[in-house]
Records
---
Amino acid sequence: MENYMSLKAIRQKVITCKNCDLCKTRKNSVPGTGNQNADIVFVGEAPGKSEDLHGKPFVGSAGKKLDEALEYSGLTRNQVYITNIVKCRPQKNRIPNDEEKIMCGNYLEAELSIINPKIICLMGNTAYGSILNGKCVSKNHGKIIDKDKRMYFISYHPAATIYNPKLGKIFKNDIKKLVKIIQKSKRNN
Ligand code: URA
Ligand code: SF4
């Protein structure tokens, strides 16, 4: 997919996409949403039940945790861009497989090349593993990694924090740290 596409065009493609078998069981595809000029792009794993119903990312209980972390960091959703590794829900929320991740990866690449954010926050092991081949967010959360002229920040998936207040606190502090780093780098430019 080429750079001349707009986010709107990607959204339209995602909505009608049949490039992998997840199209057979989804109710709605879930394109990324947010600010085209965002400094920070957040990448999750895949839509869950609420997202599949509404066609929007992070609108269920994981989304609530993400919203809390954004608010704690002084940001609102419309200042950032939020998307997922795959845009359709795997049944029973299983982890997306390699074929699904590869087929859907074109959309993520197109989103990132249009937005060209200062940093990409990979939330959870699926995002970390798919993009950086990383394992174990619990060891690597809070780290910044440069790869192929892009900068990444590693953190937990917000769903992991739902029944774990300790992780919730760590996640919020990670996001706050990320936002501070970006704000500082803008002041110094
Ligand atoms: N979990 C994700 O990874 N993405 C969503 O959009 C919702 C829950
Ligand atoms: Fe297309 Fe991605 Fe949905 Fe598969 S998951 S059908 S590649 S939009």
---
Amino acid sequence: MSQRSCLSVILAAGEGTRMKSAMPKVLHAIAGLPLVAHVVKAAEAAGATGLALVIGHGAEEMRKAAQKFAPKAETFVQEKRLGTAHAVLAAREAISKGYDDILVMFGDTPLIDAGALAAARQKLSEGAAVAVIGFRPPNPTGYGRLIEKDGRLVAIREEKDCSEAEKKIGFCNAGMMAVAGKHALRLLDKVGNNNAKGEFYLTDIVEIAGAEGLDVVASEASFESALGINNRAELAEAEAIWQARRRREAMLSGVTLIAPETVYFSHDTEIGADTIVEPNVWFGPGVKIASGARIHAFSHIEGATIASNCDVGPFARLRPGADLRQKAKVGNFCEVKQATIEEGAKVNHLTYIGDARVGAAANIGAGTITCNYDGYSKFFTDIGEGAFVGSNSSLVAPVTIGKGGYVASGSVITESVPDDALAFGRARQKTLPGKGKELRERFASAATAKKKAAE
Ligand code: UD1
Ligand code: MG
């Protein structure tokens, strides 16, 4: 089958009014990736060699977004939404290029698995002209019903056009189908709009192909993989299913999730075996974690690279560009952004490290802040190997702490510290013997006098 060329036509012209959103429905995300981008990924995994995206509502926004998640896709605008067959025909130019298989998919069905699509394509390679993907929803209301006879699919009847007997059929149209490229345009051009909604139904090609004596079959997919998103409640449902699948996959690949239902993955999270993720951890896009790391509870991580045997959190925030090398530690209430924490370095408590390098085995004391921003530009802090930065220090960038440099606690460092130097950036302490007691007595008598005057 792999030699067969395949065009995936993804229908995404609908408005999605029930999302109640200024943004086109299919650009809403699950796992940080637009719905339609999930569909594109599934199409590619099922071997699609060409992609045609049919857009309408929010066309400009869609086109722009598509450049990111499907740069090779051709976009076609369906000016008026006259039905699913009409929508597929908007991509006539792409279809007429002569692909072996045409895979029609919906942009709002993000959980479709590549296996179900490949199974439908397989039917084409075995000689079917049309292979419809069916499923058995717990409640079939609203779906087109698959009407079969002797193992062949004879028709798809939309709910509104169904007889009472047909409404009892539980096998429904998931909406997606594979059509042999050599028949596709001819079948689609024969579709009329004589039905309850007055639309050009893609589903009519089943009867049309049957009437031509062509072979039409159904293949079955899971309910989940056919789940279409119409509102934000369904969006959350799909997210939950996606997360559950991904957590399981992570665990089966050797990652320990202590409370899997509380860990959120992004579409592109990578985690190595023997890494342990504690409860309530959130991964945004662009996270790569090697093996043997420990991510403690309540950490929020995005755009970060974490090498093996690192220790992160609890309550750590790693932002884009955080690059933790082997055995680095970033502890509680620390934020790291665009910074390298080199091998074995420790940033353990209540610290902000941004636009910086922390050299190998350096120790950053509690409450250290890299002052990287003056309201206009960002500046770099370079902390050398083995340096020690005392607690509650402010490193005003641009600044360098040399290799083995030592910064006294509570310092405001505005000038670079050479290798192995000790820097104090604070006022010298003054101690006045007996002055504390004297002060206390003075304050107490003043308070007593004030109280008396008020009586
Ligand atoms: C469709 C199927 C139905 C199936 C159901 C599964 C048809 C005629 N019916 O019904 O059998 O059970 O999906 O969810 O195919 N679209 C366009 N342009 C249009 C019309 C639709 O781009 O002119 C897009 C929509 O944005 C959507 C998809 O096509 O992504 C499906 O359209 P929708 O109106 O949701 O079809 P259903 O009535 O749900
Ligand atoms: Mg629908």
